[in-house]
Design goal:
alpha/beta; 2 domains; about 45% helix; binds 5'-O-[(R)-(carboxyoxy)(hydroxy)phosphoryl]adenosine; binds zinc ion
């Protein structure tokens, strides 16, 4: 069988990205134009600005992804684009662009679920990984504990009932003056702090073993900061960062390992922007080793938003013959597993 080349396009949040992936596993190019510097000025992603920047950059990013590989449009077997979930205006830029290229060139179009893309980043990082496996997807917008039953077949075992893990990192970072984006800054600051300095709560959701809740933890950090301010006490930013991070990591790893035991997974993977967190990677690796599970985690550049993961997910849709047509639209709250 000849090689399958897929162009991936991603624009669901604040990264404009395009990539070419061979046979769903081999990255030929992976272009990412981040808007972080612009949104940092506002302390978070401004949707209107994100859409405008995607429009300004998307052509150049796609051109660069093709040029770097020497692949031309004619060589492509399909164009895979994120159509949800995400910011509707941002998603629309990628979807409209992919539809236009597909219409103009006759290359088949594939719609990809963003979270499915995050999970498939693991296929790029380890070409031997095959389903079934358990996966913890932790990003700025989502916290999902997923059973990956087969390619393109998912069962969501648990999810956050309020804030996503990355959202909690971003909000706490802002409160302790570290700015945006919070995850990498807390990760860094925590290295100098004591994770047991402050006993922050481990969020539980009544009646659900696998669901998450991070809003109570966020409030506990804000209360701690307010009390310190009222009493005129100095806070230790590294200690707050380390103690907060410890509380998040503790809950994530406990739930993930509980699911691994209950569902008898033999492999467990991490995915999403928060999977770039050094403490989480470390703890998951140890917890998996203790239980004899093989642990998978993409390198940080494939954890945060990119288009190679979208092309990888698109490959398995391609093999199933699941193509989109010109009616493909952005779906901001697209659930995982829907077609
Ligand atoms: O997957 P992603 O790039 O975008 C979404 O799909 O949401 O995830 C972005 C999130 C942000 O909340 C960011 O703060 C968090 O991932 N993040 C991290 C780290 N790097 C990125 N959180 C904790 N530690 C990190 N090193
Ligand atoms: Zn993402």
């Amino acid at each position: 069988m000849s090689d399958t080349l897929i162009l991936g396009i991603e624009s669901s949040c604040d990264e404009t990205a395009a990539a070419v992936v061979k046979n769903g596993r081999e990255i030929l190019s992976n272009e990412i134009s981040s808007q972080i510097d612009i949104h940092t000025l506002y302390g978070g992603v401004v949707p209107e600005i994100a859409s405008r920047k995607h429009i300004e950059r998307i052509d150049r990013v796609i051109e660069a992804a093709l040029q770097k590989t020497g692949v031309t449009l004619r060589d492509l077997d399909a164009i895979a684009v994120t159509y949800g979930p995400g910011l509707v205006g941002a998603l629309l830029v990628g979807v409209a662009e992919a539809k236009a290229i597909s219409f103009g060139s006759g290359i088949p179009l594939i719609g990809v679920h963003h979270i499915e893309g995050h999970i498939c980043a693991n296929y790029l990082a380890d070409s031997e990984l095959t389903p079934p496996f358990g996966c913890l997807v932790v990003s700025g917008g989502h916290t999902h504990l997923v059973s990956v039953k087969d390619y393109g077949e998912y069962e969501v075992l648990g999810r956050t009932q309020d804030d996503a893990a990355g959202e909690a990192f971003d909000k706490v970072a802002r409160a302790i003056g570290l700015g945006y984006p919070g995850g990498p800054k807390i990760d860094q600051a925590a290295k100098e702090g004591d994770p047991s300095a402050i006993a922050f709560p481990r969020g539980r959701v009544d009646g659900s073993e696998y669901d998450f809740s991070f809003s109570g933890l966020k409030s506990a950090v804000l209360n701690y900061l307010n009390h310190a301010e009222m009493k005129g006490e100095e806070i230790s930013v590294p200690d707050v960062a380390a103690s907060f991070q410890e509380a998040v990591v503790d809950v994530l790893v406990t739930h993930a390992m509980h699911a691994a035991e209950e569902y008898r997974f033999t492999k467990f993977a991490l995915a999403g922007g928060v999977a770039a967190n050094s403490a989480l990677r470390n703890r998951m690796e140890k917890a998996c080793a203790k239980r004899g599970l093989t642990f998978y985690c993409p390198p940080p550049i494939l954890c945060t938003d990119n288009a190679a993961m979208i092309a990888a997910a698109g490959y398995y849709e391609f093999l199933q013959g699941r193509f989109a047509d010109a009616s493909l639209n952005a779906v901001p709250n697209l659930p995982l597993g829907s077609r």
